[in-house]
Write a structure and sequence with these properties.
Blueprint: E1 2-10, H1 14-25, E2 31-34, H2 43-46, H3 78-91, E3 98-99, E4 104-110, E5 115-120, E6 124-133, E7 155-158, E8 172-176, H4 182-189, E9 195-199, E10 206-207, H5 216-224, H6 226-248, H7 251-268, H8 272-277, E11 290-291, H9 295-299, E12 304-307, E13 311-314, E14 318-321, E15 326-328, E16 331-334, E17 348-350, H10 357-360, E18 379-381, H11 394-414, E19 419-422, H12 424-438, H13 442-445, H14 467-473, E20 482-485
Parallel strand pairs: 1-2, 1-6, 2-3, 4-17, 6-18, 7-16, 8-9, 8-16, 9-12, 10-11
Antiparallel strand pairs: 4-5, 5-6, 13-14, 14-15, 19-20
Helix pairs in contact: 1-11, 5-6, 6-7, 11-14
The chain binds NADP nicotinamide-adenine-dinucleotide phosphate.
């Protein structure tokens, strides 16, 4: 049996929920949201490790059209974010559109009919005029290619696949990686474990986190005088946009911030040797700048050791480093991030003439405004190539992309078109410009290797500009840039 819809959304994170809400606002109700997990939330469902919280303020990291006056903290924890998403699903009546435990494996465009045929694990089949891919930029855990990793006999799991039954108490634990996930996990479990070995390859730049509970008075204000919350969101918005200046145009700002970060390190870590290990050697901003108040103090604990000697191999009982030291370990937590820049499509996608998406993207994922790809008509991506941010809330980009998708769907309907397909030269010219802009940024010139880039150095993940520029460009459907087939 084939389940037929007008639109099919893949993924129920912020992107999928936003697309669904806006479809409904447009009077579209014949759609389904396919979700691989057994609940909604995407990354905020997957990443429930201890200490998981957002590193962008909640009043900005939430939908502009659905303000939450009751955020408990400046940077809310994962459970509260997931609750907010559940509230959105309830309020906008999305639950009836959600189909869980459905992992899409293949999407194929039928050019003669102008429809997408979609298959999922277990043999379910769907068809839809349009597909909206919201499967997340950081949803595929990346396991490190370390010799012997499969021979480890203890417990081992990825930060995004946290074992709910895991109890850190009294264990000897290794954490591999020192990115955004690890710096939240380490301080949370350090007081419980017997011994924590932190395997660091590159020290991150860390700034203090301006976190605090939001007072009941402020919450009262936001509930009773909503304009105060809107004003606060605006302030946060511009504060973050200023940071983009440093990444893109004014590296001087980063020099100043680097000094603050080094001062913070000095205040937090009195031991000179440890401080040396934790001092970054690349330009701030090249990798994501992290914020934490408890990470550095956790590293000064007697039961925490930062190891920088490099991992030789993992064996049955633990980790052997290049200096020949073996450390026996009960549990290894893999905090090595996600597959972001290579093999970007999470499932097989075949567009016009059977063209394979990952094959088309072999030299680097490309789209127009991160949303449409030439040769893949009526397919829309949210958080597609070069839409990531180093400086602000991804929800801003998601809303902008969803706006463009809604405008495109309106045009498709008005013109009674079978499909719309981005012109190839539009995509090429746009991406030449994106890469040219990126070539002047700290992400390309900061002397680091990051998940922002492919192995060949091409940055296919970040938007090299302000969010307001992206919002302006995604305001309306540009008819002349598409082939419209009736
Ligand atoms: P990540 O930032 O990519 O960090 C991965 C860490 O693992 C890095 O320290 C990396 O070292 C290390 N690593 C990778 N391969 C390794 C290997 N073979 N051997 C040893 N170490 C290795 O991953 P993440 O911490 O999961 O964060 C990914 C992104 O998710 C973040 O940048 C952020 O956008 C998002 N995130 C957000 C939040 C939030 O608060 N909102 C929280 C968590 C994650 P190198 O630096 O040397 O490569």
């Amino acid at each position: 049996m084939i389940n037929t819809y007008d639109q099919l959304i893949i993924g129920s994170g912020f992107a999928g929920l936003c697309a669904a809400i806006k479809l409904k606002e447009q009077g579209e109700n014949n759609f389904v949201i396919l979700e691989r997990n057994d609940w909604l939330g995407g990354t905020w469902y997957d990443n429930h490790y201890p200490g998981a919280a957002c590193d962008v303020e909640s009043h900005l990291y939430s939908f502009s059209f659905e303000p939450n006056p009751n955020w408990s903290r400046q940077f809310s924890p994962q459970q509260e974010i997931l609750k907010y998403m559940e509230h959105c699903a309830e309020k906008y009546d999305l639950y009836k559109h959600l189909q869980y435990n459905t992992t899409v494996t293949q999407a194929t465009f039928d050019e003669a009919k102008g429809i997408w045929n979609v298959s999922a694990e277990g043999g379910q089949n769907f068809s839809a005029r349009s597909i909206i891919t919201c499967s997340g930029g950081l949803s595929q855990p990346m396991f490190p290619d370390i010799k012997g990793i499969d021979s480890f006999k203890g417990t081992m799991f990825h930060s995004a696949k946290w074992e709910k039954k895991f109890d850190a108490k009294g264990k000897t634990v290794a954490v591999i990686g020192t990115g955004a996930s690890a710096i939240q996990i380490v301080p949370t479990i350090a007081p419980d474990v017997k011994q924590l070995y932190l395997f660091q390859r590159t020290p991150p730049w860390i700034m203090p986190k301006p976190d605090a509970e939001i007072s009941s008075l402020r919450r009262w204000l936001y509930n009773n005088l909503p304009f105060t919350q809107a004003l606060y969101r605006r302030r946060l918005y511009w504060q973050h946009e200023l940071m983009a200046l440093g990444f893109i145009k004014r590296p001087g700002i980063l020099k100043f911030a680097s000094k603050l970060s080094l001062r913070f390190l000095k205040q937090s870590v009195p031991d000179e040797k440890l401080r040396e290990k934790l001092t970054p050697s690349y330009v701030m901003g090249c990798k994501r700048v992290l914020i934490s108040n408890d990470y550095y103090p956790a590293l000064t604990r007697n039961n925490v050791e930062v190891i920088t000697d490099g991992i030789q191999q993992i064996n049955e009982t633990g980790v052997l480093t290049k200096d020949g030291v073996q450390r026996n370990i009960d549990t290894i937590i893999i905090a090595t991030g996600f597959q972001a820049a290579e093999e970007v499509s999470r499932f097989a996608v075949n567009g016009r003439n059977g063209m394979d998406l990952n094959e088309a993207w072999r030299e680097g994922a490309e789209a127009y405004l991160g949303t449409t790809v030439s040769g893949f008509p009526n397919m829309f991506l949210v958080v597609g190539p070069n839409t990531g941010l180093g400086h602000s809330s991804m929800i801003l980009m998601i809303e902008a992309q969803v706006n463009l998708i809604m405008e495109s769907l309106k045009a498709l309907k008005q013109k009674q078109a079978k499909f719309i397909d981005l012109k190839r030269d539009v995509q090429q010219e746009y991406n030449r410009d994106i890469q040219e802009k990126l070539s002047h940024t700290v992400w390309q010139n900061g002397g680091c290797v990051s998940w922002y880039q492919m192995k060949n150095g091409k940055n296919v993940t970040l938007w090299p500009g302000f969010t307001f520029t992206f919002m302006k460009r995604t305001k309306k459907f540009e008819e002349e840039k598409y082939e419209i087939v009736n």
